[in-house]
Amino acid sequence: MTTPLHEAHPSSPGRRLPDTQQGMRRRNLARVMHTVNAEGPLSRAAVASRIGLTRAAVSTLVDELIRSGLLEELGPERPGRVGRPGSSLAVSGRGPAGIGAEIGVDHLAVCAVDLRGTVRARVVRHGTNRGRPPQPVLAELTALVAQVVAEAEREGLWPAGLAVAVPGLVARDTRTVVRAPNLDWHEVDLGALLPADLPPTVDNEANFGSLAELWLGDDTPLDFLHVSAEIGIGGAVVVDGRLLRGTRGFAGELGHVPVHPEGPECACGGRGCLEQYAGEEAVLRAAGLTPGENRVEVLAERAAQGDKEVHRALRDAGTALGIALTGAVNLLDPQAVVLGGALAALAPWLLPSLELELARRSAGRACVVSVSRLGPEGPLLGAAHSVVRAVLDDPAAVAGRT
Amino acid sequence: MTTPLHEAHPSSPGRRLPDTQQGMRRRNLARVMHTVNAEGPLSRAAVASRIGLTRAAVSTLVDELIRSGLLEELGPERPGRVGRPGSSLAVSGRGPAGIGAEIGVDHLAVCAVDLRGTVRARVVRHGTNRGRPPQPVLAELTALVAQVVAEAEREGLWPAGLAVAVPGLVARDTRTVVRAPNLDWHEVDLGALLPADLPPTVDNEANFGSLAELWLGDDTPLDFLHVSAEIGIGGAVVVDGRLLRGTRGFAGELGHVPVHPEGPECACGGRGCLEQYAGEEAVLRAAGLTPGENRVEVLAERAAQGDKEVHRALRDAGTALGIALTGAVNLLDPQAVVLGGALAALAPWLLPSLELELARRSAGRACVVSVSRLGPEGPLLGAAHSVVRAVLDDPAAVAGRT
Predict the structure, then answer these.
(1) In this model, does residue B169 exceed pLDDT 60?
(2) Where is region (Disordered) located (chains A, B) (predicted)?
(3) Are B24 and A24 in contact (CB < 8 Å)?
(4) A20, A223, A235: residue with CB nearest B24
């Protein structure tokens, strides 16, 4: 699958290479990519000094990455530096692209992000998917993916992978939607319904949203709990910069943490789950409004106009969030809680009661609550960037493809 | 600190070794130790074939481990095997030992465990530590440690490290007890109160208990939630075989998850925490009994005699545990919940209501609840074994000491 390379540390000819030598080469390719990505443009010498390999070893790795379209040379470095001028390296803007897709309850979206993190193509289609069977929705999504891929290819990019965000529980096979109650989908194999030439990685929208926070957020810590909402309440747990997936892939289901154990029945089978108090529909009902489209916009608009019923409903939702988060903070001890998705837009009216509840239950041990800058864009961006990160983390897996 | 070794893959003389070569040697030493530990006695050739290195490379690593007292040769293999007889290797029973200590509310305990996992010395002193200041307790513990170390040394072992389990929150510096409410200790630096020649690693008792389950339990999965009780309710989260510590080291505090948000006040500052319903003292009060020593024995004895009040109190405690665990299972999606510590002895009367509550709230998604075989021995064994595992994981760190 990959082009053979001279090893940075050659062994005697004919000697069997242990697994670790091949692994070291792959790790070194990734170190070069990550270094140029984080600090580029950089000369080969600068890369070598940063990762502690010889210039010759780095040049071999760099040549391979340029041949594969992952790095590009920008021409000679600016004059005025000490030493012989070298060519400057940057992550390629014409190589692989990550294709992200989102199946929302009320929309479909697809985008392409290049290795530099720039969105190069994007398309959104509004309209409800609630109650629609999976086949026509996936057919529509497939057409949007083709449209975005074509647009990316016109810019010299090629799709390195497809990641799909869904509002539901996804199995650890990363293709089966086990349960998406707000779409009314159960046990749907999305892998079989999307084009075989670009096999998708499917994940929960809150999971992709949390990864977007981690990679693109302002000063997001490495340990945090991400809470988001569309119709349901989603959550994701990030520990040491890695998503906690759980045994079946279902970790982070904050929406079904019991808040008032004898409260109203929930679709999950439980009673008094957080979703019954802080989900969009629950808040609309509590404010005396009828759920429809543009739920969040309606709430935010009325709250901004000073609607007392909406204020009270959002205050109560904040209190319920505070109770559920107290339990989560006790279990996980995260550095921060990040509110994303629809919750970000409603934060001004949710946060005061949420923070009060968390503080009074935690005796000075409460953690910071912050609001996502990405808001509802998080899941789509997280999906596309997850493909980009996979290329940066293991460039050898795509090298030699072009 | 370590004896120089020939590299398995020599580089040209004078060339600066990259960090990864040294790291590879350390990893290979660990692979040899773990292989012999898991499958020994084994010949050098068998070790080489299992870890995919040459026999010569393995012999160099093995010689170093024998010189350091970590492996020993058992003499020639049994006849009847194919090929030239080789000497059989086993993990040493006369090398380093892990010293584990436990500060309980009602006892102190210390033990020494050799690299084979055998307890070689053990001492327990009963008597309450509640309200005693840290200094005299630590002085007493230091004397017990000296007694166990002397006993281990008489058997040819030497202490590779000391790990101390405490019933409270421990900072990530692994020496400061931030808060141990049932001892009434706050911000105590145990590192400064224990002998400097054997610097301790201090951790929460539920954390060490969970590691004991992981390493010594029957078929314990790699993802589980450990729940234990002494006076408080402790918890620990293990993900992919690693303890989830949290930002400040406080993760796993299941005892302070809100169960009934407007319930009785808790010492933590919250209301209606799990500990108010399922802690030992709460259960004793609910059963109309006066808390004293031997609380668990009293409850287990009366429950076995058919005491209806005790049955009811334990059933209600099980229900509260089920509510708190529903939240935890939704957040973490573990493969199992393991009840340890005092809860293990009371499991026959807690489990039915606990499992019922978890099942009715989780609609078929509930996870297995199992009962620890180690029970109250878990934290002490986990502490001692954590030292042993550290030696197996990085033998180079102790090699060359003898």
Answers:
(1) yes
(2) 1-23
(3) yes
(4) A20
CB-based contact B377:B341 (threshold 8 Å) = no
- Yes or no, beta carbons of B330 and A257 under 8 Å apart: yes
CATH number of B19-91: 1.10.10.10
Using CB atoms, which residue from B53, B237, B261 is nearest to A260? B261
Provide DSSP, A258-281.
BSSTTS-B-TTS-BSBTHHHHSHH
Per-residue pLDDT at B202: 97
Annotation: CATH topology of B97-209+379-397: Nucleotidyltransferase; domain 5 (3.30.420)
Q: How many CB atoms lie within 10 A of CB A260?
A: 18
Common-topology check for domains A96-209+379-397 and A218-373: yes
Topology (CATH level 3) of domain A96-209+379-397 = Nucleotidyltransferase; domain 5 (3.30.420)
CB B233 within 8 A of CB B218: no
C-alpha Rg value of chain A to the nearest Å? 24
Instruction: Note the pLDDT tens digit of each residue in A335-389.
Output: 999 999 888 999 999 999 999 999 999 866 668 999 999 988 999 999 999 999 9
C-beta of residue B322 within 8 angstroms of C-beta of residue B354 = yes
| Residue A89, amino acid | L
Instruction: Please give the backbone phi and psi of residue B107, each rounded to the nearest 5 degrees, phi first.
Output: -165, 165
With a threshold of 0.95, tell me whether the complex ipTM lies above it.
Answer: no
Strand ranges of the sheet holding A176-180, from the earlier edge strand across to the other edge? A169-170, A176-180, A185-189
Fold of B218-373: Nucleotidyltransferase; domain 5 (3.30.420)
List, as ranges, residues 14-73 from B with C-beta within 8 Å of A.
Answer: 18-21, 24, 27, 52-54
How near does any CA of chain A get to the CA of B216, in Å?
Answer: 21
E-strand stretches of A167-218: 169-170, 176-180, 185-189, 200-204
Alpha-carbon distance of B188 to B268, in angstroms, equals 18
Domain ranges of chain A: 19-91, 96-209+379-397, 218-373
- Helix spans in B185-271 (H): 190-193, 205-216
Instruction: Count the alpha carbons within 13 Å of B352 in the hemisphere toward its beta carbon.
Output: 7
DSSP state of B254: G
> Are the beta carbons of B328 and B257 closer than 8 angstroms?
yes
Q: What is the pLDDT of residues B304-334, one digit of tens each?
A: 999 999 999 999 999 999 999 999 999 999 9
Start-to-end C-alpha separation, chain B: 11
Neighbours of A192 (CB within 10 A): 11
Q: Is residue A41 reached through a cis peptide bond, with omega within 30 degrees of 0 on the bond before it?
A: yes
Q: Does the pLDDT at position A239 exceed 70?
A: yes
In A, minimum Cα distance to B274 occurs at A327
